[in-house]
């Protein structure tokens, strides 16, 4: 999707600005033409000549540069805004984020943002405490509400010497996200014209209005599967439990709370062409629900449970011809053996098995290690959940 595309790369004044040079080269290797615009503060980290030499284009920084005729410069942001297929700001500092959120256009980069006719991808990059600041959170949410794409920063060692969330994502991840954004515009692929339903996140089984039984699922794997399905052209609906994740433009999201809620929604979507059951569904629910908070001194020490509806098995029993049914299995032992039994018992086409026994994978993590299983084969993938989701669907649908 990047071949022959026209890309504006915006660079702001953060220590990660030097990485933008590598990003520029990566876009060029993918076949894109790149022009660079920089904020004045970015010059303190990387020189203009570096980007001019690499891009083979003049670098736009000032609306009225001293060495260029006003007639040639003051409308440059308009011309670039019409020229580009995609505008990426990497790194994007808290200062520039605030300016974009407020519509301020006091340099060439922010002016070009307002003039752009193409999608805008912003890569927030800063110290972890700054990223968690209420004002930054508020501004990023404003950008999302305005329809801009946000690529979350990575966790790790920061320039301050601290560990936290604020690192510029790897070049490959930025290229993947850029390609995905352009793909959404085209909406062509092996899932074009197909309805895809993905479940994600936990369910909650309430004991009383305050207390409930649940699990630590973040919904990240399910949301990644939904994004990957959209990139293949699918018309995607996500049915999700309580999660705190950014939502992708063009995907339909339906929130639920309990397993019973999820079952009711799935009955309405059981005719989808592809069903991906990535939610961590509660297997048990309290046998008795108390309408008022149970007082501590009145509570019984034994909680009686009953089984919830096995939604995946119900879908397997009602599976339609030509429908693709994909399940997930979280195991602590005998991973492949238990997953194969589940595949057969529940009449699945594919099952994605993973374990919580390994470090830095599974619930709440951004990474995972999975084994993709059908009746004939097994294949394992490791990496970020976003990349794994893309590999899973590429394998299943031969993308």
TrEMBL record:
Q: Which UniProt keywords apply?
A: Decarboxylase, Flavoprotein, FMN, Ligase, Lyase, Magnesium, Metal-binding, Multifunctional enzyme
- Reply yes or no: does the keyword Protein transport apply: no
Region annotated Phosphopantothenoylcysteine decarboxylase sits at 1-195
Q: Which residues form the DNA/pantothenate metabolism flavoprotein C-terminal domain?
A: 191-397
Q: Which domain of life is it from?
A: Bacteria
Protein name from the UniProt record = Coenzyme A biosynthesis bifunctional protein CoaBC
Q: Which gene encodes it?
A: coaBC
Which residues are CTP-binding?
A: 283, 293, 328, 342, 346
């Amino acid at each position: 999707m990047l071949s022959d595309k026209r890309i504006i790369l915006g660079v702001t004044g953060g220590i990660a600005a030097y990485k933008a040079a590598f990003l520029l080269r990566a876009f060029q290797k993918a076949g894109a033409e790149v022009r660079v615009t920089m904020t004045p503060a970015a010059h303190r980290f990387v020189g203009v000549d570096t980007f001019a030499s690499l891009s083979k284009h003049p670098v736009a920084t000032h609306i009225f540069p001293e060495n260029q005729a006003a007639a040639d410069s003051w409308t440059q942001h308009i011309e670039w805004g019409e020229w580009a297929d995609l505008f990426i700001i990497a790194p994007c500092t808290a200062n520039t984020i605030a300016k974009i959120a407020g519509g301020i256009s006091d340099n060439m980069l922010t002016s070009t943002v307002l003039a752009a006719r193409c999608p805008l991808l912003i890569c927030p990059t800063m110290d972890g405490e700054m990223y968690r600041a209420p004002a930054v959170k508020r501004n990023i949410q404003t950008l999302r509400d305005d329809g801009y794409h946000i690529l979350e920063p990575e966790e790790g060692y920061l320039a301050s010497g601290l560990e936290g969330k604020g690192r510029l994502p790897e070049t490959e991840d930025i290229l993947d996200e850029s390609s995905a954004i352009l793909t959404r515009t085209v909406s062509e692929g092996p899932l074009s014209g197909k309805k895809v339903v993905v479940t994600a996140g936990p369910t909650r089984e309430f004991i009383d209005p305050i207390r409930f039984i649940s699990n630590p699922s973040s919904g990240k794997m399910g949301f990644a599967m939904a994004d990957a399905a959209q990139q293949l052209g699918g018309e995607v609906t996500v049915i999700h439990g309580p999660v705190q994740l950014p939502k992708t433009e063009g995907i339909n999201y339906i929130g639920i709370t309990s397993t019973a809620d999820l079952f009711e929604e799935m009955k309405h979507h059981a005719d989808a062409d592809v069903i991906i059951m990535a939610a961590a569904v509660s297997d048990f629910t309290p046998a008795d629900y108390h309408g008022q908070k149970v007082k501590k001194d009145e509570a019984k020490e034994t909680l009686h449970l009953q089984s919830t509806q096995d939604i995946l098995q119900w879908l397997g029993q009602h599976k339609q011809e030509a429908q693709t049914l994909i399940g997930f299995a979280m195991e602590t032992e005998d991973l492949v053996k238990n997953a194969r039994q589940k595949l057969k018992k529940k009449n699945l086409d594919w099952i994605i098995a993973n374990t919580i026994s390994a470090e830095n994978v599974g619930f709440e993590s951004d990474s995972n290690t999975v084994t993709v299983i059908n009746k004939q084969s097994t294949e394992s993938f490791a990496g970020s959940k976003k990349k794994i989701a893309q590999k899973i669907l590429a394998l299943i649908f031969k993308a």
